[in-house]
């Protein structure tokens, strides 16, 4: 597949005494947003963590731009271009917004820091006015914006978003959806785990349903895509 | 007499400050208080003893070699013993640090028994008179080393990206990994630097305390007390805590009872933890988001 950016082949991964992924295959093409759906415990976050290096796969391959990154530790996966926004956000709570953002690009030796910051503040104007604010004092939605903005500072080839709307008030869910839509329009390649199926289908080009450690269903998101059918595929 | 007590206490406190500074570096970068640090101080001093007295090497070359060897030892302790249990409870990390310290102490006892050995004379002898106050050249050298170490650490942690990296790793190791920081390598390096500083402390302390395998016990508790008093994680706090402890010990000894000198550090730990847990210059404990 010539435009494939991320190729996951027969991926097996899990935790001691618990096999979660039993041979997952999928592809993410350049510039598209793919959403991973599935019930709790189906392995969605494990798949993201295996790609970003936080979980060591036991078998399979993960090719990014043709280069196998399977089993690489997180800092090497980052160097290869995989940048993740984790479910817990994992921000630096006692540092300012700008320090968090700068750290996002601190391991990109060729990064043009002023240009990156200007770009992020343009895309997230609410952060521009709060650049000196300590992150711990911000709301959950604002922290999620910092987390996404920090990831963008790392100039990802592929952005992994783990439940970007998780635990947020409806107002912020709409805002995060708008941000993801803007990123998609700008050509950012994304692999997204999302529990909110309505939101997922709004923002994704394609969907994958994980079930019992395997991809049970996959398809393009079109106007005809039925939310009910996907829910049935996940839970029945 | 008061002036002499203050100056001598200051000199004594510089040694405690050096120990506290090294423990603070490891704590700031890894959130681990190295309760085995005192034994690394002892190991550094014994390294120099072996090289100078037994192998006949030059003192300064030996001191430099001891610092490098201890860096490697600290690096190896983190890589081999701390890293595998890093995801476990903090208590396990503390117990491992204590166990490593006792293992080093046990090794020294096997080789040298409980004998008290003279350390090579490295500081110029004699006294320096400043009015009614008498100082030894070693006091000035130790104070100079502590000031230089603090200046270097302050520069590195406040004026270079290392400082922000350390804060990031301290506040969220996973977050640090998410932005591409090699957290493991950073931890190993900081343990190495902490152990190298322990060697430096050993080289400065041993000429005063003399050399024996158990010399670490009092060193550790005083370093820990200095850290507590100054505030965990604060570099200036470590120095301030060390100096106040050094002066406090002598004042208590002179005006209350010499029998209390050895327990001053413990009293300080109790009082600070009760009255001001964040210490003089530390920040209140953070709650992670």
Fold and architecture overview:
The complex is a heterodimer of chains A (236) and B (289). Chain A has helices at residues 44-52, 74-80, 97-105, 113-123, 125-128, 140-153, 170-185, 197-203, 227-235; strands at residues 4-15, 18-29, 33-38, 59-64, 67-68, 82-85, 158-162, 190-193, 206-211, 214-220. With 236 residues, chain A is of the alpha/beta class. In chain A, α6 packs parallel to α7 (170-185). Chain A is globular and about 45 Å long. The model of chain A has no long low-confidence stretch (mean pLDDT 92). In chain B, strands 1-2 form a two-stranded antiparallel ribbon. The longest helix of chain B has 29 residues, at 2-30. Chain B has a domain at 16-215. Helices cover 72% and strands 2% of the residues of chain B. At the A-B interface, α2, β6, α3 and α6 of A face α6 and α7 of B.
SSE topology sketch:
The complex is a heterodimer of chains A (236) and B (289).
Chain A: E1 4-15, E2 18-29, E3 33-38, H1 44-52, E4 59-64, E5 67-68, H2 74-80, E6 82-85, H3 97-105, H4 113-123, H5 125-128, H6 140-153, E7 158-162, H7 170-185, E8 190-193, H8 197-203, E9 206-211, E10 214-220, H9 227-235
Parallel strand pairs in A: 3-8, 3-9, 6-7, 7-8
Antiparallel strand pairs in A: 1-2, 1-4, 4-5, 9-10
Chain B: H1 2-30, H2 37-54, H3 59-82, H4 90-112, E1 128-130, E2 133-135, H5 137-159, H6 161-171, H7 173-178, H8 183-209, H9 216-230, H10 235-255, H11 264-275
Antiparallel strand pairs in B: 1-2
Helix pairs in contact in B: 1-5, 1-6, 1-8, 1-9, 1-10, 2-3, 2-4, 2-8, 2-9, 3-8, 5-6, 9-10, 9-11
């Amino acid at each position: 597949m010539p435009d494939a950016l991320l190729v996951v082949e027969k991926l097996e991964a899990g935790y001691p005494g618990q096999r979660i992924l039993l041979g997952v295959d999928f592809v993410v093409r350049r510039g598209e947003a793919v959403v991973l759906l599935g019930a709790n415990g189906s392995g969605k976050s494990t798949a993201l963590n295996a790609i970003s290096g936080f979980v060591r796969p036991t078998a399979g391959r993960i090719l990014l731009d043709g280069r196998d990154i399977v089993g690489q530790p997180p800092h090497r996966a980052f160097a290869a271009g995989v940048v993740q926004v984790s479910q817990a956000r994992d921000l630096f709570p006692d540092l300012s917004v700008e320090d968090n953002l700068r750290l996002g690009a601190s391991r990109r030796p060729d990064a043009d820091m002023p240009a990156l910051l200007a770009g992020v503040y343009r895309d997230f104007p609410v952060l521009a006015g709060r650049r000196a604010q300590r992150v711990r004092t911000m709301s959950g939605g604002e922290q999620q914006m910092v987390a996404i903005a920090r990831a963008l500072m790392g100039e990802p080839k592929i952005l992994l978003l783990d439940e970007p709307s998780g635990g947020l008030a409806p107002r912020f869910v709409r805002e995060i959806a708008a941000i993801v839509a803007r990123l998609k329009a700008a050509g950012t390649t994304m692999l997204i785990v999302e529990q909110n199926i309505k939101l997922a289908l709004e923002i994704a080009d394609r969907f994958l349903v994980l079930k019992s450690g395997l991809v049970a269903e996959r398809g393009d998101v079109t106007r005809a895509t039925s939310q009910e059918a996907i829910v049935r595929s996940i839970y029945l | 007499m008061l002036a002499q007590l203050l100056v001598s206490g200051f000199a004594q406190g510089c040694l405690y400050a050096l120990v506290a500074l090294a423990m603070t570096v490891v704590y700031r970068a890894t959130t681990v208080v190295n309760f085995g640090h005192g034994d690394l101080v002892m190991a550094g001093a014994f390294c120099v003893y072996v090289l100078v007295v037994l192998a006949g090497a030059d003192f300064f070359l030996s001191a430099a070699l001891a610092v490098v060897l201890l860096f490697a030892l600290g690096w190896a302790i983190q890589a081999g013993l701390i890293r595998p249990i890093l995801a476990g409870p903090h208590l396990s990390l503390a117990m491992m640090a204590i166990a490593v310290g006792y293992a080093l102490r046990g090794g020294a006892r096997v080789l040298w028994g409980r004998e008290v050995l003279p350390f090579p004379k490295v500081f110029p002898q004699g006294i320096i008179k400043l009015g009614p106050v008498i100082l030894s050249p070693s006091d000035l050298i130790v104070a100079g080393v502590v000031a230089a170490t603090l200046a270097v650490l302050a520069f590195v942690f406040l004026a270079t990206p290392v400082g922000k990296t350390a804060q990031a790793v301290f506040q969220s190791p996973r977050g640090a990994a998410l932005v591409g920081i090699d957290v493991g390598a950073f931890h190993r390096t900081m343990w190495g630097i902490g152990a190298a500083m322990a060697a430096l402390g050993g080289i400065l302390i041993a000429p005063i305390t003399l050399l024996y395998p158990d010399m670490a016990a009092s060193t550790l508790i005083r370093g820990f007390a200095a850290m507590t008093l100054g505030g965990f994680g604060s570099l200036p706090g470590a120095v301030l805590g060390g100096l106040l402890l050094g002066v406090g010990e002598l004042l208590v000894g002179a005006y209350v009872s010499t029998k209390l000198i050895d327990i001053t550090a413990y009293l300080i730990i109790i009082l600070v933890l009760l009255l001001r847990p964040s210490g003089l210059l530390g920040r209140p404990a953070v709650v992670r988001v």
